[in-house]
Amino acid sequence: MRRSFPFYLCFVLCYLQFASPMQAETVAEKPGVSVDLLEPGSSPRREVRFTPQVGDKQTAVMTVKMDQSINVNGNKMPSQSVPAQKMVMLVEVTEVATNGDISFDYTYTDVDVVDDPNNPSPLAETIRTMLKPMIGATGRGIVSNCGVMQKGEFDIPEGLAPSIKQMLEGMQDSMDKLSSPVPTEAIGMGAKWQVVQKLEVNGMKLTQTSTHEIESIDDNGFQMKIGVSQKADPQEIKNAMLPAGTSMQLDSLTSSGEGSSKILESSLFPISSKVAIETIANMSIVVADQTQKMQTEMKMEMQVNPVSE
């Protein structure tokens, strides 16, 4: 096996793990999401509901940074920097149903690599080429007034290479990364709740559990801190980005992290948020009947900030 091959597979896994999934070109029902109130918080309490109006627009930039180390068959591989990736999304509310469900359209207006000019990454142009087809991509979705994604649809251009198409399919659940489910019950200062989501990330099934605690609240919104963990059972990973004749088995995956988010209830998604996650993934890779054991440790930081008009 060539020295560069394990790093390539690790790069694939980064997109499997963090670029997130959904069915393309069809409206997909979202997997089950449970929101359980742990502590209601102090009085006064009130029901939190998202109330954007038809025609409201929100533009946000999502920046993702990753660092990783790779161990193959007990041997640590040379580390390579992965440049940050930036995605700018324009979201517009198109309908508000009588039950409070909010329909919206979204467009990726810009997608690029944020490279360090003083220490350029050799991966920058490769990643930029992979992300470029996303510019101008559109989709639509429905979210409840409690912030739970209900359905999603993503328009993928025809004629793309299978690897690029699957990568774009993976980007669709970036909407899930922006949504912030809240309890149906009345909550106040110090309220805590837990959100459990069953996700399927480009063929890899995992469970994500997040805990939320209100740090400040007023009549318009609140600030909260977030703890998040992910876990996946052993399973085969099938992905078009893998080289021909290669199979990948996920032996284990665990993630943990924390962050914060600022919520304005008149907006569809958070005004700003930041989360840092550390992931350890153990995999078995079979190439030409030879099995390689690979462990990848990743640190990811994701920020969402508003874009000034």
Automatic annotation (TrEMBL):
Keywords annotated in UniProt: Signal
Domain of life: Bacteria
Secretion signal, residue range per the UniProt entry: 1-24
Protein name as catalogued: Secreted protein
Species for this entry: Novipirellula aureliae
